[in-house]
Amino acid sequence: MSxxxxxxxxxxxxxxxxxxxxxxxxxxxxxKKDYKVRAADYNAKQKVLKRLRMKAMDKNPDEFNYHMINxxxxxxxxxxxxxxxxxxxxxxxxxxx
Length: 97
Prior knowledge:
- By secondary structure, this protein is mostly helical.
- The protein has helices at residues 2-9, 32-58, 81-96; strands spanning 71-74, 77-80.
- The chain has a two-stranded antiparallel ribbon.
- The chain starts with a helix and ends with a helix.
């Protein structure tokens, strides 16, 4: 029974200290749990970026897509051709009223 009591004495919870008041001007003191959340978020974003890069590398540039017909680049900007017709039609109906 005494070995159980001795084991319980050594199992106290570790509490992290707060930011000292004279260092408050430096901002938030990052604790381990904060770091773990930030690191997990960063790694998840890096994984997504890596997957997108691989997807872009695997893409065949000679592959045909109907969206190529329905869009164009004007002065370096990507423009949908059908959106121009809808904007003109909407403008005519507003001006007719």
